[in-house]
Amino acid sequence: MLERLSLKKLMLELVFFCLPALLTGLFISYLPWLLLISVLAVLLWNFYNQLKLSHWLWLDRSMTPPTGHWNWAPLFYGLYQMQLRNRRRRRELALLIKSFRSGAESLPDALVITTIEGNIFWCNGLAQQLLGFRWPEDNGQNILNLLRYPEFSDYMRQQVFCLPLTLQLNNGHYVECRVMPYSAGQLLLVARDVTQMIQLESTRRKFFANVSHELRTPLTVLRGYLEMIRDQELENALRDKVLTTMEEQTKRMEILVKQLLTLSRIETAPNTDINERVDMTMMLQILQHEVETLSNGRHQIIFTIDRQLNVFGNEDQLRSAVSNLVYNAIDHTAPGTRIEVSWQRVPQGAQFQVSDNGQGIAVEHLPRLTERFYRVDKARSRNTGGSGLGLAIVKHALHHHDSNLDITSEIGVGSCFAFILPDFLIKPLAKP
User: Which of 85, 124, 181, 305 has CA 20 to 30 A from 410's CA?
Assistant: First the structure.
């Protein structure tokens, strides 16, 4: 390894240049001129090497410095080593930046780095998707020009970032924004999509409000009748009416609690086993007997069943789905209505369908029928004991079987509720 440049080495090199002139001058008596020529040679030698160094620094594209001799050798070698160190540091810095950006791209949040004034310095891919930024086109743009929301502008101008800001975007999504110091003169904006969280919270509030309302009515009736029984003697006829009403309200609460438990059990079963063999023929025969007893001749009920068509699935959930659809047809149609229940093979799979020629449902109600506690006619539903949970149960049960509920209806013509189980769930009935 070359030795580093030192004063001693420079002096030795000067002596080396001057020694021949000194020895020659002792014999020919021109010592001053010879020493001057030696010094000039030293200057020309250094000037030549400076030209080589300048050419390499500014004109030569090669990465290796020129070859040096004597005092210039350690200088060129030192420059070469410094260049290698710089290249290594640049590679390490590039890898560090690449790792940072790769990690930032993997985060579930939108990240935006801005200056104190709000000019965008960098953003990750999720920020482009969620906030609508374009990169690198928006590099240097002020973030307030891209997110034009008054509350966000106030949040950035006030520079008080101790609490997050929840912002509703123009596309309907909700984002939670947090801003924090990142480095000298820079801010880091972290935006997270909280749309689902807000929707779930809204659903939870509505759910508890609806449950409280549904339970309050029968409890009020029961409490009133209990006070009546306690405070006064009742005649047999009135007493029987009171007891009958109390029994109906108790059954109503019992049905509501049972359906709530069923819905909760279906919703909280993400790994539902759908590999169970379900005998749909036997299930529908039992259901036919039950609904004929429930209707008591008030409806014309027709079952059309393919007895060779059976499926794989979850028996309890499929029973809840088909029974709720048929019971709804009985409970919510007028006497004399024709109700047709069909279980048939279709090209897409196995289709279950319940249709009637009743009063029908207005088109504006159809998209919301599977919502919890939603009723088309609240007064009539309460009179028939409907809780508004039946179709919600059907929706979640079918979701576990890769199916959806299809609803069509027309006022004065009738309604049709149907779903199709896909081909991979169909199992032919084994022949004896």
Answer: 305
